[in-house]
């Protein structure tokens, strides 16, 4: 192939861009449907047995005379039978009301209920029973909570009044958790997100700070940082592994560990501890084996640092990528919450209201989930192409002392004018490989009770195989984006040319590149390791009710995505520089007619 760096441009992979637009049209349809049919406020604010959402005004439901009330000042859900809750057909066998405050002291009689309602303005009996009738109406015992009413307080989890009596609390918590355990995975994820939303947001910001500091350190303190990073990763892995084993021992020997959520936390802590220990052993072994190549890595980061010094705005590229990803994730979660609460209100005997899920919601949720993966990968692919384009523009410039003006803006304009379809296709291939892994993981969790060693081994082998394919494809994609930035060809042609030119070059380049990627991977491990440690410390204070397995997984996922987004500046710059160098060696010979573009340090 004749290489023509940044000479010829044409629109690439336009059909894939059209397919992406059609896919997003489907996402917009799901968004509109979720907004119209869903009610995320029910999940966030809570609602009573008559269809009223607590903390807001409500519209009446046909056949439910107690619906349609103004609950603006009644923000908490109170169960009339909180000490003897039971689950019947996925429903709690107790009336529950919206109240303005939870009883702080035990109420032993109807007179106490009446006095509490008059002094606090919080009626704990059914709405159609007047306060003056609490002690006069013969049906008051059926319309008011079971006596004695235990003291309770508003727990920051779905605005519920949680009883403080140990016996009642244990029963209340076990029923609430069993309700979460018996619904499908979709709703469990929703519950996990909402349960730890504040902590997840705080830890996400912490991961953002870690990633940004690490990027600045790579730019200005690269020689010292490589050694410090290796030491910190070794310390972090050993420290987190030790903390995980200590927490597992502490939970396992805690005599109060009786609830299902606590037992589940113990199981996952054991899994986390074993996984962390294995990762620590593997990475420590790799560090010992590859320690002699440290000098090559220092040379790599010297060249990358010089390139980024010529294009300083590359350091801000991950920040815009993160902001775009954050906006998209907030949009995605908002739609997911609305979609998860899409249902029709149906009245039952006694004027109560039940919300039944609409058909087809599960398929919409899967479509929405594919949209999360594909769009996230597309945004990251756009960042990779932007960085690669800027590096290519700077590399293939004869006058190194006078770099091109605004290479980042130039790269963005080329991306949006010509190569969005290429980013769509590359991100779609990653999505195609990731979805089977997720399906296999879902099936594995369903079938793990069968205890078939052969089936478990088969699932793990398939899962590992898809992961290896995805890793290889990511590497090829990154070089394909750089080749597209150089030659202006479509994704398939660029990938073929990139593989050919890399296979033709020396193993020394490959070893330097691989170890550089390994150092950057250690940086990602550093961010994830210390962010997850912060999550362990934060969630450890909520042992009783909060199921923090899902939020902790989300924290780890967000920390990895952010660290990958930030450190990909160095990763893409290094890979693009080596690919440009290989093409430079292929097309030029160093003579006066065909001089090299590269710096003398790489020769």
Automatic annotation (TrEMBL):
Membrane disposition: Multi-pass membrane protein
Localization in the cell: Cell membrane; Membrane
Record-linked InterPro entries: Choline_transptr-like
Segments forming a coiled coil: none
Pfam families per the UniProt record, alphabetical: Choline_transpo
Regions that span the bilayer: 15-40, 200-221, 228-249, 269-290, 311-335, 518-539, 545-562
Primary subcellular site in the record, as a coarse category: membrane
Keywords, ordered alphabetically: Membrane, Transmembrane, Transmembrane helix
GO molecular function: transmembrane transporter activity
Superkingdom of the organism of origin: Eukaryota
GO CC list: plasma membrane
Record's function text: Choline transporter.
Annotated family: Belongs to the CTL (choline transporter-like) family.
Protein name: Choline transporter-like protein
The organism of origin for this protein: Buceros rhinoceros silvestris
């Amino acid at each position: 192939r004749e290489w023509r760096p940044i000479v010829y441009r044409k629109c690439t992979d336009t059909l894939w861009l059209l397919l992406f637009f059609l896919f997003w049209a489907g996402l917009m349809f799901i968004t509109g449907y979720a907004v119209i049919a869903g009610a995320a406020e029910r999940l966030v604010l809570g609602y009573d047995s008559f269809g009223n959402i607590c903390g807001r005004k409500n519209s009446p439901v046909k056949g439910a005379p107690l619906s349609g009330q103004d609950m603006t000042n009644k923000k908490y859900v109170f169960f009339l039978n909180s000490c003897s809750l039971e689950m019947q057909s996925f429903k709690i066998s107790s009336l529950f009301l919206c109240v303005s405050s939870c009883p702080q002291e035990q109420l032993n009689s109807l007179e106490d209920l009446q006095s509490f309602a008059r002094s606090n303005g919080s009626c704990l009996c059914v709405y159609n029973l007047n306060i003056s009738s609490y002690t006069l109406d013969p049906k008051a015992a059926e319309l008011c909570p079971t006596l004695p009413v235990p003291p309770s307080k508003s727990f920051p989890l779905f605005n519920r009044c949680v009883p403080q009596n140990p016996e009642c609390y244990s029963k209340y918590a076990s029923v609430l958790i069993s309700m979460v355990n018996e619904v499908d995975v979709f709703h469990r994820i929703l519950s996990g997100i909402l349960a730890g939303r504040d902590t997840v947001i705080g830890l996400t910001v912490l991961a953002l700070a870690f990633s940004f500091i690490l990027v600045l350190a790579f730019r200005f303190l690269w020689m010292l940082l490589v050694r410090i990073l290796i030491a910190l990763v070794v310390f972090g892995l050993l420290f987190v592994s030790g903390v995980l084993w200590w927490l597992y021992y502490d939970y396992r020997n805690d005599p109060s560990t009786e609830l299902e959520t606590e037992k589940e936390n113990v199981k996952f802590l054991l899994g986390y501890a074993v996984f962390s220990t294995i990762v620590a052993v593997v990475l420590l072994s790799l560090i010992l084996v590859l320690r002699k190549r440290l000098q090559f890595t220092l040379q790599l980061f010297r060249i990358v640092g010089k390139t980024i010094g010529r294009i300083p705005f590359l350091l801000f590229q991950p920040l815009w990528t993160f902001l775009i990803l954050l906006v998209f994730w907030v949009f995605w979660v908002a739609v997911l919450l609305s979609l998860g609460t899409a249902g029709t209100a149906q009245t039952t005997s006694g004027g109560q209201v039940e919300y039944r899920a609409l058909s087809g919601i599960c398929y919409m949720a899967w479509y929405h989930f594919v949209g999360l993966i594909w769009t996230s990968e597309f945004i990251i692919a756009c960042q990779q192409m932007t960085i690669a384009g800027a590096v290519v523009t700077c590399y293939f410039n004869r006058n190194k002392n006078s770099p091109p003006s605004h290479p980042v803006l130039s790269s963005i304009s080329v991306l949006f004018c010509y190569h969005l379809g290429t980013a769509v296709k590359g991100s779609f291939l990653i999505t195609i490989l990731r979805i089977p892994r997720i399906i296999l993981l879902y099936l594995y969790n369903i079938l793990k009770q069968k205890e078939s060693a052969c089936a478990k081994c088969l699932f793990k082998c398939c899962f590992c195989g898809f992961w290896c394919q995805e890793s290889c494809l990511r590497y090829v994609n990154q070089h394909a984006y750089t080749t597209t930035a150089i030659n202006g060809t479509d994704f398939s042609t660029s990938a073929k040319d990139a593989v050919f030119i890399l296979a033709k070059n020396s193993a020394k380049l490959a070893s330097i590149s691989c170890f550089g990627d390994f150092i950057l991977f250690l940086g990602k491990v550093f961010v994830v390791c210390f962010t997850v440690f912060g999550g362990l410390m934060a969630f450890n204070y909520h042992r009783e009710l909060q199921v923090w397995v899902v939020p902790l997984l989300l924290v780890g996922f967000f920390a990895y995505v952010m660290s990958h987004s930030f450190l990909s500046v160095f990763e893409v710059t290094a890979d693009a520089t080596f690919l440009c160098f290989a093409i430079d060696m292929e097309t030029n010979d160093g003579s006066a007619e065909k001089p090299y573009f590269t710096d003398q340090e790489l020769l």
